[in-house]
């Protein structure tokens, strides 16, 4: 009986260990210095990205294992004389688990027949990449197509195919790229972030935090991994559910990454 419970614990823990994500933090810099260093590292074939704030943190990742992170950290010292710290990124969007499935707007199904209807070449490319993940069941914190994916992993995967590296969770993705003031300035490929309001159990104060992200496709539509549909779907930004929860827009895709006709 003891061996049975031990085996059960191992089976339950193992998927969580496999889903861990790591990155390297190279430290905080001015925005200009961080951009220059990031461009250089990207030119060297390294997965660099910047977390924007009062200061800018330069990171390399995502890295799939601690061993991969340790090897890259050693390589940075030997080849570039750069010091870094290993960070285990959150492998789940904690706030998203608390979202009620019944609250989400349903969205619509995407298939190969109607995906060709997008006139923008970048939108068609995003949809084409999404078809590889489309129909996969949604899984909170999931990172395995065919088993389950969550919203931030979906966005991270699409952007990686476009040559852009992003952090693991929606809250950290919200700190990357250029801030766009309002929906009138939206461009295909922009990231749309949504929030939920919570109440603290201790103080009973209400607070909001980012808990969902999607990719704008144009004409008021965006693509994302939803809890309601348990799959990747397309929704409209003007639906009341998303209108009242829109927290902000970030432009990640530079001009030179847009797909030309």
As laid out across the biggest beta sheet, the strand order is 7-12-8-9-10-11
Class computed from helices, strands and strand pairing: alpha+beta
CATH superfamily of the largest domain: endopeptidase domain like (from Nostoc punctiforme)
What pattern of helices and strands is seen along the backbone?
A: HEHEEHEHHHEEHHEEEEEHE
Morphology: globular
> Major beta sheet, specifics?
6 strands, antiparallel
- Taking Cα atoms only, what radius of gyration do you get, to the nearest Å? 19 Å
Helix content: 25-40%
How many helices does DSSP assign?
9
* Secondary-structure arrangement, i.e. CATH architecture of the largest domain: Alpha-Beta Complex
- Could you please say which CATH topology of the largest domain applies here? endopeptidase fold (from Nostoc punctiforme)
What's the number of extended β-strand segments? 12
Overall average pLDDT: 79
Distance linking N and C termini: 64 Å
Q: Uncertain runs with pLDDT below 50, 5 residues or more? A: 2-19, 91-102
Beta content comes to 25-35%
């Amino acid at each position: 009986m003891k061996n049975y419970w031990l085996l059960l614990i191992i089976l339950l823990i193992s998927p969580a260990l496999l889903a861990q994500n790591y990155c390297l933090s190279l430290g905080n810099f001015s925005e200009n210095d961080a951009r220059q260093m990031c461009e250089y590292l990207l030119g060297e074939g390294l997965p660099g990205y910047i977390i924007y704030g009062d200061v800018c943190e330069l990171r390399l990742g995502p890295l799939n294992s601690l061993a991969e992170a340790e090897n890259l950290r050693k390589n940075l010292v030997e080849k570039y004389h750069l010091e870094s710290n290993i960070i285990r990124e959150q492998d789940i969007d904690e706030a998203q688990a608390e979202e009620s499935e019944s609250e989400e707007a349903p969205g619509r199904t995407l298939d190969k027949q109607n995906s060709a209807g997008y006139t923008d070449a970048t939108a068609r490319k995003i949809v084409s990449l999404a078809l590889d993940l489309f129909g996969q069941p949604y899984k909170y914190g999931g990172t395995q197509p065919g088993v389950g994916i969550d919203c931030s992993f979906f966005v991270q995967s699409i952007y990686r195919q476009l040559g852009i590296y992003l952090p693991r969770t929606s809250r950290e993705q919200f700190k990357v790229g250029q801030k766009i003031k309002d929906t009138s300035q939206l461009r295909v490929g922009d990231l749309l972030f949504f929030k939920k309001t919570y109440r603290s159990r201790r103080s009973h104060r209400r607070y909001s935090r980012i808990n969902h992200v999607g990719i704008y496709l144009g004409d008021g539509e965006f693509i994302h991994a939803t809890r309601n549909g348990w799959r990747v779907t397309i929704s409209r930004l003007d639906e009341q559910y998303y209108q009242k929860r829109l927290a902000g827009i970030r432009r990640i895709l530079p001009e030179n990454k847009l797909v030309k006709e």
